Amino acid sequence: MFVHKLAGMGRTQLLPFLVYAFTSLKLVAYYGNYMLLLTKLNQFVDNFLGSTGAGVGNLIAEGDVKRIQQVFWELSSLRFLIASFLTFALYHLTDPFITVWLGEEYVLPRSVLVIILTNFFISQFRGTNDQFIFGYGLFHDTWAAVATLAITVAVALAGGFLWGLPGVLLGDVASSLTVVSVWKPYLLYKEGFGMPVMSYWKNIFLYLLLAVLSWGLTDVVLCFLPLPEPSQGYGMWMVYALVSSLVFLLILCGGFYCCSAGMRSLVRRFRRR
């Protein structure tokens, strides 16, 4: 666990230095404005869902495989829904908010925002995997922590040299898409659940399809609504944020309830309470 925590801290602390090394101190400050918003959202979601960790540990101790899988997919569907909703909202609202808050000159290129949100999305929906890995005590893959840090630094150095700020930020995405998104689920299913990992990927690809379709349908709906320009002031931004987020949330929740057994199980659990 010490090695995993140390490598995670290294990734977080090295990134601003790499951004500065290949860009400028001004871009580090601009990047910090974006990360300030994302960090606060990350903390909010972690505080909201992190309390389920103790329940996961008790559930694993009981050894009921069927119930473990049921709860895993309930939490996974909830995490994925929250991650999709926040990513959609941030994609549409971050640049206008920065414009209203600080000015248009502080807005980073759209490609940078996409890379930042890709890493944010992965960090959100991996939360359930991390909880169950902690519950099973699967920390012996110390090579994975070292590999994550090495991939981050290597890709950031190469990407920074070739593309500047977007290339540096690709380092985090590269390690998240490989070790975090591929190896960690495999480890959990193989040594935790004792099941083939293909069942995991079938559900994840279904969730991704639902999120993409909901996003596209929401963008079509928003084109026909007489919404104000969100960068014209805080009031306009709030109206746009409320309407666009609500439309996407309704479409996304409807899709998840119809297509995700985990979400239906979670809704039934809340109804019983």
Automatic annotation (TrEMBL):
It is a multi-pass membrane protein. Keywords: Cell membrane, Membrane, Transmembrane, Transmembrane helix. The keyword Membrane applies. InterPro entries: Poly_Biosynth_Transport (IPR050833). The chain crosses the membrane at residues 12-32, 73-94, 106-122, 134-157, 163-183, 204-227, 239-263. Its main location: membrane. It is found in: Cell membrane. Coiled coil: none annotated. PANTHER family: PSMA PROTEIN (PTHR30250:SF26), PST FAMILY PREDICTED COLANIC ACID TRANSPORTER (PTHR30250). This is Polysaccharide biosynthesis protein. It comes from Bacteroides clarus YIT 12056.
